[in-house]
Fold each of these.
Amino acid sequence: MKNPQYESHLVRRLKWEDLDEKYVEGLVKAARAEDIEGAGLAVLPKIAADITTRSLTPSIRTKASLRARRDMTVCGMELARIALKVYGEASGDFGCRLTALAKDGDRVPAGGTLGTIEGPARVILQAERVMLNFLQRLSGVATETAKYVAALGDSPTKLLDTRKTTPGLRVLEKYAFACGGGYNHRIGLFDRVMLKDNHLAAAGASKGDALAGAVRIAREKNAGFAIEVEVDALDQIPPVLEAGADVIMFDNFSNADIAEGVRLVGGGAWTEISGGVTLESVGELGKLGADFVSTAAPVHSSKWIDIGLDS
């Protein structure tokens, strides 16, 4: 039977308060260093400055609006606030204020206003591109995820993300996936045992008793952690189930085999569909009775959402 102690781990969505704001602030500072200081170049620029906006009088203040250019699901408003803070601190100007008119997870139509910004023109103009880059990227992930969730309709099958994320941006992209209505798979290698085909092949444990033994060893060495096993054939399911796996992933199964796999598992473990999931196929997959369907597509294939900063 499904072990209830793992349910909150398997069915979870990252919230903003789950993220380390100091880490996020570090990402913004690194992006600023690229833009202002030439970070990453072997030979740094002679002048580490925004040589355009430094010609503006420091006392000039301005007001601008963050405007959606197309229908979107918002993600990154708190990050925008952090960006303004980082640039303000670096410039010695602390007067920037973001008034949010939408929150992360909200749907905003084309032409809608996400928020307004008031403050020193130099700070806003310096921060503009980096702030928009984060907002556009994360809102793109959230918007694409929302399409997949909508395609699932009333199905109880939940949409999961994967570890196929941009290096350094994992928690942000997973947060964006959650803002779009999806759920988060494991955050990293540290929070769930996941025996995939390469692990089993390396251990010579892809079939029968050897496969069951590999699952039992994983359980013994990782008490308190959920055990997930990837299977690529129906005959792998009985030994995996008998050995006590918590989640069984059907990798690149046909729809008919998925339905049969769900029948074989019979509620003895959580079931996950993975491999080749598309926006066109996810609706049908949601009708096959699995608990989860996982895909990296909303992260790696989403388009940036066009957001403007209008004066």
Amino acid sequence: MSFWDFKRSSASVRLLVEFGQEQGLDIAKLLARSRLKEADLADPALELDASQELCVVGNLIRACRQPGLGLEVGMRYNFASYGLWGLGLVSSATAGDALALALRFIPLTFAFCRISGDLDGELCTVTFEAPDVEPALQRFLVERDVAAASRLMRETLGPTFTLSRFTLQHTIPLGASWLDAHLNMRGGRPEFGAHSNSLSFDRKLLDLRLPQANPVTVAMCERACEELIERRRARLGTSECVRQYLDAAPLNMAPDLPQAARMLGLSERTLKRRLQDEGTSFRVLLAEVRGHQANGLLADASLSLTDIAERMGFSDLSSFSQAYKRWFGVAPSAGRSGVQDGAP
């Protein structure tokens, strides 16, 4: 099970956009190529693909090139950001119950990391396995998921909560003194270059009774989370999961079938069979996604065809033109005219 298997709430994208706007960024640039419009974000029932959130994250990273960006953004996620999942945490009887509920329904969060909990001596350690995405996205997502979890721990356990240890695998960023001025992750600065991304705290805290414990509320939240997770899972078939994965990949590094199978935890043969059962193939999906990406770039009049070919990883304009003709039956120049005139 991975983040590709589920739809997700739009609350995280709204938070990302709000952060970007505070930095003076234009909302249209933040939502570029995400298939989202500003008006969409006003719909509380809107659900997104993982690839759409990753697109917004990528836009934010490119526009805000600052160290520790994911840590700063992650500290803005409070329990209310997560809806019923967050309410279930603070309504649990003990911290241990809250952690169990959190891990059970983790697909209802905005996390891209694979998150697990473990008892190690006197500590409880929550580990964040980095997602298999491009390095810049990976760093941001790890930082964000870890920081968001740290804030949730503090909100759930109370203001006296302190981390025993906070580790990150990536190296210390330039300008790391920024962390001292802007972070409030109790437990001090992160240990960079560690073997894992993790948060550790005294395991005795797991038995702590939570101040807002309410058995009726937590039971209601659990039932609602169970129903929501099944509803979201049922909407996605294998082809949609592959489509999302391809859409989120770097433009210049189109994945192949073995990579897609590995990401989805399937053998190549099983992936081929499932796609065939759904009336499609990996080659068809790749052409569909690459064509959509190309049209998104063609809509930007500031980019030349050569620029677009380079961004999409083609060796030259001729190779891009040949691929575009296979996808749409016309040259990129004709495709650009259609896109800019509003044709699909």
